[in-house]
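Notebook, student rotation project (T.W.).
Task set for the rotation: take a protein with a known small-molecule partner, predict the structure of the complex, and write up what can be learned from the model alone. Partner molecule chosen: zinc ion. Sequence and SMILES entered below by T.W., checked by me.
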Amino acid sequence: MGRLLVVLVLLAVSLYVVKLIKIKLDEPTPKLKKDSSRNESAENNTMVKCLHCGLHIPENEAIKQGDKVFCSLEHAGREI
Ligand SMILES: [Zn+2]
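Predicted structure of the complex:
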């Protein structure tokens, strides 16, 4: 009996989660997400390390000099 209850609860929870996901996918609102404040830049979420100071930054915000990556133009300039 207890087992059936657990299965029912799990089923209900999973249905609820699916519903939530569908709602989230449907709404095109630019609401702030937990992790990423920038919606567009969030799609490429690879973190890279600045060669100069070791700071981790999103790849799309990094300054690239060939195969070297920096957090800012200042650091890119210093390293050259
Ligand atoms: Zn840096």
